[in-house]
Prior knowledge:
By secondary structure, this protein is an alpha+beta fold.
Amino acid sequence: MKKILFILSALCxxxxxxxxxxxxxxxxxxxETSFDFGKIPQGKPVxxxxxxxxxxxxxxxxxNVQASCGCTTPEWSKTPIPPGGKTSxxxxxxxxxxxxxxxxxxxxxxxxQTKQLIIKGLVWKTPDQSAPSxxxxxxxxx
Length: 142
């Protein structure tokens, strides 16, 4: 009987402890987490800015923003974002290689938390030389 009473008591205490845990409030809000550049010409760098909002009660600190490769360059402010404040991360892609791409950008914030952004698109090969001149235009110039 003592064992049953002990087990019931332990279950009640564990249920009480679980009920006391409150879910952590997410301090960072990203209105968009991915961006598709669509079709872009080879050799033409492109950029996109992702908005970051601080929904927490304390300042939000972006400790680091790291791209998955050297062809993607993030730029961000090192200044803490006050509660309710906004900032942006500008992400550039150099579009040197032909073909489709999908790159990730990892945001490290508030001493160890992370979020991920994605950029993607299709780089089409630009011609090696300019288009030939159109001799038929001479007819209209006469």
